[in-house]
Specification:
The chain has 317 residues and is an alpha/beta fold. The chain folds into two domains: 261 residues, Carbamate kinase; 35 residues, no CATH class. It is 37% helix and 21% strand. The strands form four sheets. Strands 3-9-2-1-12-16-17-15 form an eight-stranded mixed beta sheet, sandwiched between helices. Strands 8-4-10-11 form a four-stranded mixed beta sheet. Strands 5-7-6 form a three-stranded antiparallel beta sheet. The mean pLDDT is 91. One of its GO terms (biological process) is L-arginine deiminase pathway. It catalyses: hydrogencarbonate + NH4(+) + ATP = carbamoyl phosphate + ADP + H2O + H(+). Keywords: Kinase, Transferase. This is Carbamate kinase. Belongs to the carbamate kinase family.
């Protein structure tokens, strides 16, 4: 079997160097390698929509905000997400276009700055808990608290900013993504989970950006649903989801049912800050009517799209 339209969520290992370096050259080199794997998916005759993380990139912008706070006003977090979306998207477009050309493929890449709708009443806004940026001293943190930000004392390492991480409701710009994909473009969109916007709970109300970060894997599930994709692939740095991770009984999951994967999640098998959101994303997509979802390593994404032999594969059957 081969998918018709696939949404691929690229993880941090596709955006930074092997040692975690986020210099411009390290990012471009990592993206160039990822682009080769994505091009192989396109070569299989599949419509591809890409989304990606942006944690290190946003973190760098936040540091610049902090260091320049006495000179220029800091920009809000939704602006940072938008800026990193554009930077990463054009870099992916450059490298992926080159990879497609090398393979003699006619498709080209389009990057789309993308908004994700969140609920004003989401409980995460009342209790921000997602840490972002660097650790600073209490004196530095107080300067940003005065600007309306929330910072927490994280012990010996210092203070760190925490922000809301609300649930994604819909991808506002999915009709534009659909149109570009249908026209033959590989679309890069919804980076970093999308720019968080709210309509203040009213139909037809103007949208406005809010200070938050959205989990990119959960947004990928919503995007895949909105686009009518038949497959969602979560690309990470391991070949399979593991149960009993780090124990002698550790084992990889291959093809699994929704009930089996839900049971493992309920048993606390998947860490909240790493594999947990990826598992939740694939579960939500299939439970919402998607045909199949795969969690696997970047180098396996072509195989994940064309068959069930690689990765952890979740299907309706």
């Amino acid at each position: 079997m081969t998918s018709r339209r696939v949404v691929i969520a690229l993880g941090g290992n596709a955006m930074t160097g092997a040692d975690g370096s986020a210099t411009p050259q390290a990012q471009r080199d990592a993206i160039r390698e990822a682009a080769g794997h994505v091009a192989e998916v396109v070569a299989a005759g599949v419509e591809v929509v890409l989304t990606h993380g942006n944690g290190p990139q946003v973190g760098n912008l936040l540091v610049k905000n902090e260091l320049a706070a006495k000179v220029v006003p800091p920009v809000p977090l939704d602006w940072n997400v938008a800026q990193t979306q554009a930077t990463i998207a054009f870099t992916i477009a450059d490298e992926l276009d080159a990879a497609l050309t090398t393979r003699g493929l006619p498709q080209r890449t389009a990057g789309l700055v993308t908004r994700t709708l969140v609920d004003t009443d989401d409980p995460h806004f009342r209790e921000p808990s997602k840490p972002v940026g660097r650790f600073v001293s209490r004196e530095e943190a107080e300067r940003f608290v005065a600007l309306g930000q929330v910072w927490e004392d994280r012990g010996p390492r210092g203070w760190r900013r925490v922000v809301a991480s609300p649930e994604p409701r819909s991808v506002v710009d999915s009709p534009a993504v659909h149109a570009l994909a249908a026209a033959g473009f590989v679309v890069v969109c919804a980076g970093g989970g999308g720019i968080p916007v709210t309509d203040d709970g009213g139909d037809g109300a103007p949208l406005r950006g809010v200070e938050a970060v959205i989990d990119k894997d959960l947004t990928a599930a919503v995007l895949a649903r909105d686009l009518g994709a038949d497959t969602l692939v979560i690309a990470t740095d391991v070949a399979n989801v593991m149960v009993d991770f780090g124990k002698p009984s550790q084992r990889p999951l291959g093809r699994v049912t929704v009930a089996e994967l839900r049971a493992h999640a309920a048993d606390g098998q998947f860490a909240r800050g790493s594999m947990g959101p990826k598992v939740e994303a694939v579960l939500r997509f299939v439970e919402a009517g998607g045909e199949r979802a795969v969690v696997t390593s970047l180098e396996n994404i072509a195989g994940a799209v064309t068959g069930d032999a690689v990765g952890t594969v979740l299907t309706t059957a």
